[in-house]
Amino acid sequence: MSAMFRARWAYAAGLLCFLVAAIAVAECPPQWLYGPGQGFVGVDGFVQVATTWDPDGPGGQQELLVVGGAFKLAGHVAANNVATWDGQQFRSMGSGTTDQVYALTVYAGELSAGGQRCNYIARWDGRQWQPLGGGMRTNGGGGVYELTVYNGELIAGGEFIEAGGQPCNNIARWDGQQWRPLGTGTDRSVGALTVYNGELIAGGRFSTAGEQPCRAVARWDGEQWHPLGSGIAGSVFILTTYNDEVIAGGRFETAGGEPCRNIARWDGQRWSPLGSGTNQYGDVVGLTVYDGGLIAAGLFTVAGDQACNRIARWDGERWWPLGSGMDNWVFGLTVYKGELVAGGWFSVAGGLPSWGIAGWNAQRWRPLSAGLDGSVNALVVYRGEVIAGGRFQVAGREPCSYIARWDGQQWRPLGSGMNDEVLSLTVYGDELIAGGRFTAAGGQPCQYAARWDGQQWRGFGPGVSYKVHALTVYNGELIAGDDYAATRWDGQQWRPLGSGMDRPVYALTVFDGEVIGGGQFSTAGGQACKAIARWDGEQWRPLGSGMEGAPYASVNALAPFRGELIAGGVFTIAGGQPCKYIARWDGQQWRPLASGMAGELGASVSALAVYRDELIAGGGFTSAGGQPCNQIARWDGQQWRPLTTGIGTGVYPHVYALTVWSTELIAGGGFTTAGGGLSYHWARWGCPFTKGDLNCDGDINNFDIDPFVLALTNPTKYAQMFPNCERMLADVNGDGAVNNFDIDPFVKLLTP
Prior knowledge:
mainly beta; 84 strands
């Protein structure tokens, strides 16, 4: 420990008994927060190529996966056609490239990319992409299709006529200073390159190389081009080496005169098949070696005698599938951190949504990026984690069928999830309760309602008669709202509350000692109750004259706030008063909250929560109280205010669920952005905490010393004094614990 910090430590320790009086609770302006778990599940286009790259060689930075293709988004970042993946999240590389990336490789420690723009070839200088030596010139189309390193030079193959101003027909070499030809090149495009026995092997659509007859494949010995036997009758799209042989993939029927459908091997003397190859028109466009086997990818659905959807493994004797494969083209293959990475133009891998890219861990496929692939309908906090239910199949990188949990770092499944959509969530006793359209949970029969005890899913006897839209707890009993009634679980069986409703119950809460039910009904227990009713323990009663609005008024969300009941939904009148989509009940009458909500195509309020003593409303509106508030707004008791630019984009951007977790407001729905940043189907609103900023004022300085000492020595008092901060901000060294090992790193933050 430094002498300076010993003095500060002594000073701070001496002040501990005065902290209650001396420390002012810091406030920070909340904002939308972004991070792992909030991104798109893959890319929004396709991945053409993937490779690995260590930015600082043997230095301290970790190796990265780099993907290129045609896309605008990767995970939770805007990334034009090229991005890196560090094992947790995607990151952009400057402003990306202006057009599709076909090829990637590492040369002289730098990453190089080939494609359609930036003079067809570029290098990454650590901040932006720069043209390499004047680039290439084409006859109007083409570009650089493949890159490799041979004899200390960068080799580029493609469809071009010049490189750096030099005549270079479809293939060229870069020595670090200038481009030079490889003989007279080829007569048509080069799309594949590899190195074998000290020679450069090129494949493509050509018929001559260096004026020698070389059908689709040729070798360069450093001086001139030579054929590989009688060549391949077709096109070669990809080359690699495996078991001391050259492997060629493409679209062809014969190689060296031998029947070799779309894939063949060259042992240095002759061509031979790999089993019976792939099915007709089942092009092979990707090859790599993984876990001792050869991996082939493309458009095929059969390899050998096995059904292999777009990807297969050759063990030296026969072909094997990799799970259920993909639903469309697979282009690029590489290995990163022990996983096989496949990129292409697919949306499903191994039966799971995985847009454009997926990883195979020798047992199953999983998405590469972390996020939710479908909308969130319900949110609740259970055992310190956020629970999300909805219409998704993937959360993070795991299959999470319709329900998942967020621990602050990653999404994880709750057992095997459900067999259909989750619509509602609550906590009852020590169990998590889920309701929805499902009939099974964790593989067990659970009709429309299920309970999770932290280990497994269980049902409620015979279950509920109709799908469950809403859940709450009243007088020690679980209450469920379904299509025609509200029912209660007494620990043994479900019993109706009165004679039920004529239409669905969408919302439930407890207010003033009674159950409040909202929905699309016009009667409850035989009483006229327009869209809202109260259960006093014996019967249903109306709340004033209820809600009205064409064609059917509905109450979709309920929440107590500052002694009043707040109702949101699809209505324009409450208790005879104009109340656009939201209203408050003071125990005697309905009143508006300013001018309510509005939207160009109508409006609705679907979710309500209380955060930092403000009412938060989410739904399908675009304004609140006359203020622009896209899908989400806050009410301070006097007026509506936006949460910056709100939530938007998507087919029908909408907030369906809200909850408060730790110091954050969590929103779920069918949106793709929050505050203008990418945030797929769920979003976080709170303070942007930084390690070492223990008072959460947005800066790391001497005012953080006393809170840091308190976080180390008295966690309970720290939580009381700084309720809007996190004690783990004192984990400056990032080892997952707050202890004395964080002291010196904290001092370094103070005195950089």
